[in-house]
Amino acid sequence: MSTTAPSPKSNSDQDRLPDALSDLVNRVVRGTRLWPSERRDVRAELESHFREGLIELTGEGKSLSESVTYLRDDFGDPKLAAHLIRRGKKRGRPMIWKALVSVAAVCGATLCAGAGYVAYVAFGKPTPTVDYVAKINEPLQTLPITDRAWPHLREAMLQMLPALDLFSGSTIQSAKPGDAEWVKIAEGIATLRPFVPRLVEAATKPYWGYVYGMDGPEYLQQRGTVINKPPEPMSEIDPLIPPTLRMLLPHLSDVRGVGKFLAQNAKDLVRTGDFAGAWESLDTIHHLGMHQMSSRTLIEQLVGASLIKLANGEMQAMLHAMRDRLTPADLDMIHASHVMTGPLDSLRPQLKTEAFFFEDAVQYVFTDDGNGNGRLIPSQFSKIVGYTGPGQGTAEAGTDAGAIAIAAIHADRRETLAKYHEVLDRTVEFWSLPLYDLRRGEGNALILKLASDTTESKRFALIGALLPALSMADQIVRETRQSVLATRTLVGLLGYQADHQAMPARLADIAPKYLCELPTDLYSGMLFKYQLATDGTFTLYSVGHNLLDDNASREKIDDPMRHGSTTESDLVFWPPK
Question: What is the average pLDDT score of the chain?
Answer without folding.
Answer: 87
